[in-house]
Amino acid sequence: MPVPCCISSIGPRAALWLALALLLPGCALLPNGDAAATEASATPAGPADTGPAAPGAPAFDIRVECADPALRQLVERFSDLQRYRGVSDLDAFELERLMALAGRNARELLGTEGYFAPGVQVRREGAAGGRPTVVVAIEPGPATTVRQVDVDFAGDIAHDADAGAQAQRAAITAGWSLPAGRRFTQQRWSDAKTGALRQLLAQRYPRGRIAASQADVDAPAAQARLRVQLDSGPLFRLGTARVLGASRYPPELAERLSWLRAGDAYDQKALVDAQQRLVESGYYDGASITIDPEGDAAAAPVTYTVTEAKRHKLQLGVGYSTDSGPRLSLEHRDNTTFGTSWRSDTTLQLDRKAPLLQLELHSLPDADHWRTALFARHMRQDDGALVTTSQTLRAGRLQSGPRFDRNVYLQYEQANVTGAASVVAPDALVGDGAALSLNAAWTGRFFDSPTLPTRGHGLSGEIGVGVTTMGVRKPFTRLTGRWLDIVPVGAGGSRLALRAEGGAVIGARQARLPATQLFRTGGDATVRGYAYRSIGIPLGGNWVGPGRVMALGSVEWQRPIAQQRWPGLLEHVLFVDVGSVANHASDLRAHWGVGTGLRLITPVGPMELDVAYGLQSHAFRLHMRVGFNF
């Protein structure tokens, strides 16, 4: 008769005798102090099964004596003695047999924490006729430390001379989390193997596995030698794409927006980033990109499973910034404008300083990820003494990728500037004019995170050549550049953010360039400690106008705070900003701002709150903004 059927029909006492009969032969295997070889199995995951229990008071009490509170709690919680405390009719002979097993059980539990030569004594205390107490006295002995670690490789990664394979091999070895000199425990041993396997699976080798592992423990010496062999299997490369769930938009759109290419080596992070790009594109509400690790390694089919976004999207936004005050926006998106493959984005933004209405049209990306773009905007910029009403028309080609953006476009701009009665300046000085220009822009982003970077750098530049179209036509050239470098400093996540930005317009002094092509600065994202766009060319009184040369710089020290109470939530910053605008480089005069602030880390980026003092404005200002953008 099968054993489970027998057990189901026997009582608590019979179950106890059966357990003793099965476990006692193992007593001969108790460690004897000689060198042992052990492959640690698993840390107990929870309380022991209570087993059979009879109603009433426990048959005996348990007391564990150990100087180490953590070890004492371990044995108390997971000792096999706990299973049979509820057997109320337990006799003295049966209790003695359980006590013999308790010593072995305690040694096994201590071994999971790296104590392989402990002293364990189990004794019985208690007056005759009363409830006995089983005392487990423990002297843990020396904790076992790791003497040597051997991480070996098999499969493609073992012999591939490719730089990527060599770097991955080195990273796995360097990232081993249980190095020589560290205390050995079962959990650390398991975590180290899991971490190494995770690194192997993350790139190039989704079929990787642990081929062999062994922990050789010398109990008297309290030392362990660890051996692990990782079998990578074959190198996987991406093959043809298959898109599931596409109906409204062409299937090839998902492949193009993902920026994954056939022939690329498998990279788990690249697939996750591609999924995020699909969702952020606005064409999809959800996306999953997978390969079959059991498929053809040389050209593994890539499966895109997408949930398409609706054709129309209407979004109402309410916001606030210290630059322009409260803001209300209404945005409408049509992914198939007038039944075509073109997308349109219409934005109406209302705020105190810069209300605008704009329309953007984009074609679907082609096989090289380039798309055609059309843009139109009407905007009113209120700078106090000067109010600029501008119109912009733009047509061009752009390419937006994971790291690089490229843009080539033809642009027409016109600006009408009205001023207070106290402002007397020629049109060319205040930016009343119009221009037609051909422009090229490039941006490179090399940060460790697109929304919450802690290291990396970004660089962008733009050049435009054109001619003014108001008054006497004059040629001009416009150049701008930006640079940001985030450098870790010391321990604890501290870092420096170094920023520089510059721009210049080269042309005749009489050229009536539109204000939108000229420069003003100051405010949340430029020079803190000064009002929005308050640094420019003095026009008399407290009024300023736009200039033809701009230079900015900033040094910001960022450090995490309150990490024990709110890990990864708050940062403190100290900063120095400097900037200037002039019509000639020799006339630049520095405007300094110094201050401090807090960063609240959110999923969409940091929420920044700064207090800055302008050394030239002699005033404190509060600055607030949300998100990281480069």
What are the key terms here?
single chain; 16-stranded antiparallel β-sheet; Ubiquitin-like (UB roll); alpha+beta; disordered N terminus; elongated; four-stranded mixed β-sheet; 43% strand; 630 residues
What would you note in describing this structure?
The chain is of the alpha+beta class. It has four domains: 10-139, no CATH class; 145-231, Roll (Ubiquitin-like (UB roll)); 238-308, membrane protein fhac (Ubiquitin-like (UB roll)); 365-626, Porin (Beta Barrel), CATH 2.40.160.50. It has ten helices and 28 strands. Strands 11-12-13-14-15-16-17-18-19-20-21-24-25-26-27-28 form a 16-stranded antiparallel β-sheet. A four-stranded mixed β-sheet has the order 1-6-7-5. A three-stranded mixed β-sheet has the order 2-4-3, covered by helices on one side. A hairpin with a 3-residue loop joins β16 (386-400) and β17 (404-419). The longest helix has 21 residues, at 92-112. It is elongated and about 115 Å long. The N and C termini lie far apart (73 Å). The relative contact order is 0.06.
Map the helices and strands.
Blueprint: H1 3-8, H2 12-23, E1 36-38, E2 61-65, H3 69-78, H4 92-112, E3 119-125, E4 133-139, E5 145-154, H5 156-159, H6 163-174, H7 186-202, E6 209-218, E7 223-231, E8 238-244, H8 251-258, H9 268-280, E9 284-291, E10 300-308, E11 312-321, E12 325-334, E13 343-351, E14 356-362, E15 370-382, E16 386-400, E17 404-419, H10 427-430, E18 433-447, E19 456-468, E20 475-488, E21 495-507, E22 537-540, E23 543-545, E24 549-561, E25 570-582, E26 591-602, E27 605-614, E28 619-626
Parallel strand pairs: 2-4, 5-7, 8-10
Antiparallel strand pairs: 1-6, 3-4, 6-7, 9-10, 11-12, 12-13, 13-14, 14-15, 15-16, 16-17, 17-18, 18-19, 19-20, 20-21, 21-24, 22-23, 24-25, 25-26, 26-27, 27-28
